[in-house]
Design brief:
There is one protein chain. By secondary structure, this protein is of the alpha+beta class. Strand 6 and strand 7 form a beta hairpin. The chain is elongated, with a radius of gyration of 22 Å. Helix 2 packs across helix 5, helix 4 crosses helix 5 and helix 9 packs parallel to helix 10. Helices cover about 25% and strands about 25% of the residues.
């Protein structure tokens, strides 16, 4: 695909692909390892689509970086190594998979271009990201080349199942706001060709364009659906303690990425799911100072709610009195104990919830947490991820403490 070569950027000096460290690296069996028994008890393909690798071919400070993804993945490395940008690329792919336009996903596309990337003869610069999704159709890979300058557009996309290319697009005429697409047909003609918009992910558009009349077309549709389902149902969160200390209006009860409406969500979840609320109280009890009998929200007038800790002796401590670490710990615990119906995510509505997996992206997971809080939070994450309905990919400043938690995969992005 020519576009992937025209947007190639010089590799930054000293930058190496992400490498999985212990525990739970590719060498160690885990929930994503080939040959692991699936939910039916036999050896086979997983029944839920999920990402197993993120590729940052040329994105921000990354060049040829491959990030293996497991149920619980921690990205580590020194400041500036690209942990946050890796999560940003993951979220961008998720939003593109949900049908969002390039302008929405990349409001500052120039910031995604590798610093040392030189423009080509047409003064074009861009970036390349991709991923692999495993599921009922087996491993399916997606790679996307985006032109950031002089104007934002998709200039190349490839969806493949092993050596078989299922969809390939390329920018043939820069004067048209479209890319030329060719997808596998498997009928009397090997491929079908048609233009697709250059501001959307072609893979997400395939169900609207492919008839599904031949075996080849049905394979394209199945692979595209697996990729889209794996990408969607992503919740990117970074709790902001300052916004959690002030009352919030009663609303939809769906948690926002900054968790500033935590009180509104507690008002809802405390009555809707007693079992999970009990787990939240138990978790908060181990991470907050003093006695904790309950975690709840109470009205403060004019349709506003505030979050409080019930100390069990008649005293209620408002969240405005809690430390940053206590607030981040509580918010992240709530995220891990809830699901798509509570978090502000875009699930694939046409796929049963039992076949979807919520993926949480958390930047600075250990920010502001003391050793006992971060260990408790990681143990909770390991418990929830082991069940298969939730996955966590998080950036941490130091993962030396994570080795004590079984199932945690550490990926070092150090140069």
């Amino acid at each position: 695909m020519p576009a992937f070569h025209t947007l190639a950027a010089a590799r930054p000096e000293g930058h190496a692909p992400g490498r999985p460290d212990s525990p739970g690296g590719p060498e160690s069996p885990g929930p994503d390892s080939p040959g692991r028994p699936d939910s039916s008890g036999g050896l086979g393909r997983p029944d839920r689509a999920r990402l197993t690798e993120l590729r940052l071919s040329a994105f921000a400070g990354h060049r040829s970086t491959r990030v293996p993804l497991g149920p619980l993945t921690l990205l580590t490395g020194p400041s500036g190594c690209g942990k946050s940008s890796a999560l940003r690329a993951y979220e961008a792919l998720a939003r593109l998979g949900g049908g969002a336009g390039l302008g929405e996903v990349f409001p500052d596309p120039a910031g995604c271009v590798p610093e040392r990337a030189r423009p080509d003869a047409q003064r074009r610069r861009g970036f390349r990201i991709g991923c692999t999704a495993d599921g009922p159709e087996g491993p399916v890979s997606l790679d996307v080349a985006v032109q950031a300058e002089p104007e934002l557009r998709v200039v190349g996309e490839r969806l493949a199942a092993g050596p078989l290319v299922l969809l390939e697009t390329a920018l043939r005429d820069p004067g048209r706001r479209a890319v030329q697409a060719a997808w596998h047909n498997g009928g009397s003609s090997p491929v079908t060709r048609a233009p697709l918009p250059d501001d959307r992910l072609g893979t997400a558009l395939l169900p609207l364009r492919v008839a599904g009349k031949t075996d080849g077309q049905r394979r394209v549709l199945a692979a595209a659906e697996q990729m889209v389902v794996a990408l969607r149902s992503v919740f990117a969160c970074d709790p902001r303690p300052g916004s959690m200390r002030v009352p919030t209006p009663a609303g939809t009860g769906r948690l926002l990425r900054g968790c500033g409406n935590l009180a509104d969500v507690l008002w809802r979840t405390r009555t809707e799911c007693g079992r999970r609320h009990g787990l939240l109280v138990e978790t908060v009890r181990t991470g907050c100072a003093g006695a904790v009998a309950d975690v709840l929200a109470e009205p403060v007038g004019e349709g506003m709610l505030r979050a409080v800790l019930d100390r069990g002796d008649g005293t209620r401590t408002g969240f405005e009195r809690l430390g940053d670490g206590e607030l981040r710990y509580t918010a992240l615990a709530l995220v891990l104990l809830t699901g798509p119906g509570v978090l502000e995510v875009d699930p694939a509505g046409e796929v049963p919830a039992a076949l979807q997996t919520l993926t949480v992206l958390a930047d600075g997971l250990d920010r502001g947490l003391d050793p006992s809080q971060r260990a408790g939070l990681l143990r909770l994450a390991a418990r929830m991820c082991e069940r298969g309905h939730i996955r966590l990919t998080a950036a941490v400043s130091d993962a030396s403490w994570a080795g004590e938690v079984p199932g945690a995969r550490v990926v070092d992005l150090s140069p």
